[in-house]
Design brief:
The protein is an all-alpha fold. Helix content is 70%, strand content 0%. The chain has 4 helices and no strands.
Length: 161
């Protein structure tokens, strides 16, 4: 007897199926989570389209109502986008001022390390597309580890000139 009874084969197949399903669920969850994190969420035009579609379906809007709702949603999304850009600019200015004060407290060796930290952070932001395009910084990956494997500095903004 070779030890492969029908019940044993069925057990192995079930175990392989369960392991595959668990890996698929975990992988799908992680992929979805990373997709949202990498993109920083929906783009404003996608957000408006999503909202309009949701309102149309759930509220059963007529064509005329949908036509009236669209510009309202588009305007609101644009205003929120403008607000986010302004908020980012103000936050950046506050942090630059803070960093300037911190630099004044450091000895020369610490100043050099601070400069290197900022260079790494600037490169990380550039690599992640956070150069101010679309008015938002990139979102750090889970665990704060970049794809290159180096943790981004915790100083979110560069010091002033």
């Amino acid at each position: 007897m070779n030890g492969f009874t029908p019940s044993r084969v069925a057990t192995y197949l079930a175990a392989v199926f369960i392991a595959g399903a668990a890996a698929g669920i975990a992988g799908g969850y992680q992929w979805g989570r990373n997709s949202v994190i990498k993109t920083g969420g929906p783009r404003p035009r996608d957000m408006a389209a999503h909202m309009i579609e949701r309102y149309s379906k759930e509220l059963e809007l007529s064509a005329d109502q949908k036509q009236q709702v669209e510009p309202l949603v588009q305007d609101a999304v644009q205003r929120v986008r403008t607000l986010h850009k302004e908020n980012f600019k103000q936050t950046d200015a506050i942090m630059k001022g803070c960093n300037e004060k911190i630099v004044n407290l450091l000895d020369p060796a610490q100043k050099e390390r601070f400069r290197q930290m900022e260079e790494r952070r600037n490169q990380w932001m550039k690599d992640r597309g956070g150069d101010g395009a679309r008015g938002r910084p990139p979102v750090p990956p889970p665990g704060g580890i970049t794809p290159a494997g180096t943790p981004p500095d915790r100083m979110p903004f560069r010091p002033g000139p």
